[in-house]
Amino acid sequence: MLKVENVSKSFGPVKALRNASIAVGAHEVVGLIGENGAGKSTLMRVLSGGMRPDTGTITIDGSPVVLRDTSQANRYGIAMVFQEQSLLLNMSVADNLHLANEQPFTRFGVISRRRMIEAARERLAKVGLDIDPSQKAGELSFAARQMVELAKALSLEERTNTPLTILLDEPTSVLETKDIKILFDRIRSLKSRASFVFVSHRLDEVLSISDRIYVMKDAEVVAERTAGATSVASLHAMMVGRDLDAEYYREARQESPGDEVVLEARSLAVGGAYRNVNFTLRRGEVLGVAGVIESGREELTRTLFGFLPQTSGVMLIEGREANLRTPTQAVAAGVGYIPRERRTEGLVMDISVAANITLARLDATMRHGFIDHRRERAIAVEWIQRLRIKTPSANQVCRNLSGGNQQKIVIARWLTANSRILILDHPTRGLDVGAKEEVYDMIRNLSAEGVAIVLTSDTLEETIGLCHTILVMRDGEITARFDAPPHAKPAQVALLEHMV
Amino acid sequence: MTGFAATESVPVSFAERVRPFTPLLLLVLLSTGVNIAEPGFASLETASVVIADASVLFLLAAGLTFVIMLGGIDLSVQAAASFASMVVAELLPRVGYAAFPITILAGLVMGLASGFVHVKLRIPSFVATLATAGIMTGLSLLMEGGRTVSLTDEGREQVAWISGAWLSGVPNVIVIAIVVAIGGMLAQRYTRFGRYSAAIGAGEPAARAAGISVDPHKIIAFGLSGVFAALAGVVLAARLSSGSPDLANQLLLPAIAAVVVGGTAITGGVGSIGRTMVGALIVSIVRIGMTYIGVNIFAQQIVFGAALIFAVFVTIDRSKLPVIK
Amino acid sequence: MAPAFQSTPSAADPAPDDSRSKRGRAFLQGSVGGGRLADFGPLIVLIGLSLLLGLLNPSFFSFRNLVWGLANSAAIPLILAMGSTFIILMGSIDLSIEGVLCVGAMIVALLCANDSNDHDFGWWGPLLAIAAGTGLGLLNGLVHVVLRIPSFMATLGLWFVGLGIGTVALGGSAVRVLDPGIRAIAFQRVLAFPLTVWIAAAMFLLALFLERRTRFGRYIYAIGGGEDIAALSGVPVKRTRILAFTLAGFFTGVAAVLAAAQLGQANTTIADGRLFMTVTAVVVGGTALTGGWGGVANSLVGVLIVAVLANGMVLLGISPYIHETVQGLMIIAAVALSIRRSGSFTIK
């Protein structure tokens, strides 16, 4: 019995885990569900030895253990099958299966390839995979790779005498339906050898494979259910939990958008990602795009900023056809982008606040074709005051500022560049509650000033709370469109119906 | 990741503040040091020799600075300089003064070619420039069958504006270097190219997401490196009255050392032409100081190699390298 | 938490494939299987090139040319390429080849019977040269791994340190090797081939053995394929890296002995152009600069391509001075053809 008790973990001010407790019994499949940011991945990393918790204990059959790193977790029989697959694609399946554990096949420093392949074949047979172990991992299908990883995790039983616990982090997110079925069959038949922790955002899958299910929300484990005694609907209700709080999302400040259409998509498509996307975005409107992973919404936002040019269809910006092949063209057309990766994509951390603010429109600082530093400084100082950016000076390097202030600098940059359309790509990811509220305020301010916003967010409630209009995408197509006026917001369940 | 409510700003430590000035400090310490060891060193004459030496080095290193600031490297500067010395020596008797602009143009073209190969063909810069260095060396060798080309008497007069001295005996090379230095510093501070280079070097993904077209600016940086290397080659040819396929071969290491010792990080972002000027002076003082003290000229390479590693060790920003390859 | 397109390092890079890429990639890599033909590309180039030269000048296939023009001149590059292959397989680079080789050749010349001093230590010279090469390789590895400096910078420093040491010890002039035993390495024929060629063949087999049959070889590929994954799996990354650079130093040391024997002397230019040729050979053979793909067999083909081309140009009476230009173009072409452009990482 593997037990996690009262484990907490914080990153700066952000609580990633709060007194989380779960237990995994022998020969059991335990499901773990929660929205993005609920703490599932952090909990998995704690279990796999990838991260030490701040407080709390982990026990195996009652005796406490410390999981310092992956190999130590392995010694206690815990292995993780990573969501980001961890096979070396340039090496053979056999090499991958035995990596860093070639000792049994080595005599006088010489590896016996034949014995390695034989052993690999045995291991693959355990997961029911009939492939040539001397094949390169890169030549395998995604489903087969997943099985190889499973076989690798299972091989721990040869090295440890504690019962195995295998952690599966979103194992189905890259698989086709028929492969998912195969994976589930394997898991069921392997239950006699090991217990599993199964993390997924697909509730129906979790329900069908698990014996017991834990629900996480806001860094806490909020519920535990036996699979037979619950349903997708009730799981979802627990996972989403919180009722919409009109005040939290500043609904009172939501004004109706202008009539002027600033962005229009007509039959927009990117081959293999999404197709036939039609929508209009008006001045001051906040348009949310909801959808699960692989629904095509991430690609759609990338198209709007020129990262991923459409393969067919038309985009009109302020009535003119805009064919955005690069971010440079997007910026010139009046589009700005607030990325989720603030530290690498939002700001150039090692140049000054002023240089970042003027980066997208250096022209504003120029006199006779050269940068006028006094003018640049004036622009920066103006934004520092207007957005209340807390920095010792405009010449301060951005790295030393807080995350919230950095986010404000990104916004100041796009306002300097006269962006009339802003793409907000998960703008509150990694921020704590107070910081999130400031972002919400800012979105309302921008909207009131007539900036049109396209928003993708980690949670449905944020999307619903903030947006005027919501597009729901599934499998690359828009499946529904909701109006979300203040005090008449659509229910999350209503959106969800069109998402999965 | 910190939230909005987190601390306003992290105070900058004293060491952080002093760090940019270490090269300058080192320069002062070195000159006094050599002077104490060999009191004759501080004469106006030696100063002039040191600065003239530093000037040539600086020209080579100045172009390299643009490339290193973007996080790349140009291992072809010495080959480009040698190539330019051959081109100018070949052309002077034929086209007269037009040889100078043509040579610089040739440097520009070769530099742009390096940049194109690196950026558009996506080949790591150290290999791309190793290759273009080979191409240029081959062309230089081909020109006169590997031989050196000496300038004619007429040629010597044509390069007098480079090899000569100004009013009070200040070698013209120094004037050229100063003009280049001022031009470079102004370009870095006041032009779009300078600003974008700094941004790309400090954070390429962020620069891209801010709408900067990264690729052309990278290629231009290599082009500039070619121009400055060609200029250095022309100056070398003028001073030595000849062009040769391996004229500048010994200068690659000192040039890289000048950039890095000056405080420009090979990981990009941090750096400037001004720092390279200080770096070039440091390297020249060490070079000439060592000769003065009587250290074998070949042993200097040992010192530079070690100094280079140390300077890289100190200046490198490891947060930019997820995996150190 | 399942970032759909952030799984690649940066969304800002215009990766043509993204979240779907997972499947897309699987498909692409499935086609690498079909790309096995591409694995034979260098070999096809080698055969085609040889046939072409044979047609243009039949003496290309004469036994004498094959032994002395080709095999003998490919021997030293092959040994150098063996060491570099392991380094490049890890995604790193060793620029110090010329420096290390210079030191090695200097030691051989100054310790055996020579025209500069009275030493006559015979075979101690070559042994110490190999030891010194290995030691400098170890130093490369330590500077790179312990000081955490990118290999191209660490080895660039040692390149010049080595050149400096070699030149100082030689006093800037050439020192002739008079020891007949050492000279015999270059001229003694065994079964028609000079000893040099046999030594190179032995070094190739050694490298092939290390690559295919030892844990070290496995770890090299693992590091090149994904250093973070390798480390997570428990591969001793640091130790393997240091070992690889040490091994490269060893091979360079051996090459230094052969170079001194072949040239009959050690001088300051003995190593000129060797780095360039080595990198060309490894890259042309099909080993990817990004690491993980290729191997010593590829490098054998690469060395032969470069050697055949050089030999052919001599036979066809083309100026030897253009060699470097041709090699430069070959590097660019080979890398440009082999780099996986689907990767969305920043190239520096």
- Major sheet summary line of chain A: 6 strands, mixed
Helix proportion of residues of chain B, in percent? 55-70%
Separation, N- and C-terminal Cα atoms of chain B: 27 Å
Class computed from helices, strands and strand pairing of chain A? alpha/beta
Radius of gyration of chain B: 20 Å
Q: What is the residue-averaged pLDDT of chain B?
A: 87
Short overview:
With 500 residues, chain A is of the alpha/beta class.
Task: Write up this protein.
The complex is a heterotrimer of chains A (500), B (325) and C (348). Chain A has 500 residues and is of the alpha/beta class. Helices cover 32% and strands 26% of the residues of chain A. Chain A is built from 17 helices and 24 strands. In chain A, strands 6-9-10-3-11-12 form a six-stranded mixed beta sheet, with helices on both faces. Chain A has a six-stranded mixed beta sheet with strand order 18-21-22-15-23-24, with helices on both faces. In chain A, strands 2-1-4-5 form a four-stranded antiparallel beta sheet, covered by helices on one side. The mean pLDDT of chain A is 88. Chain B has helices at residues 14-18, 22-37, 44-69, 77-95, 99-119, 125-143, 153-158, 160-163, 172-190, 192-202, 204-209, 214-240, 252-261, 273-293, 299-315, and strands at 149-150, 242-243. The radius of gyration of chain B is 20 Å and the shape is globular. In chain C, a hairpin with a 2-residue loop joins β2 (189-190) and β3 (193-194). Mean pLDDT of chain C is 85; it is low at 1-36 and 341-345. At the B-C interface, α6, α11 and α15 of B face α7, α13 and α15 of C.
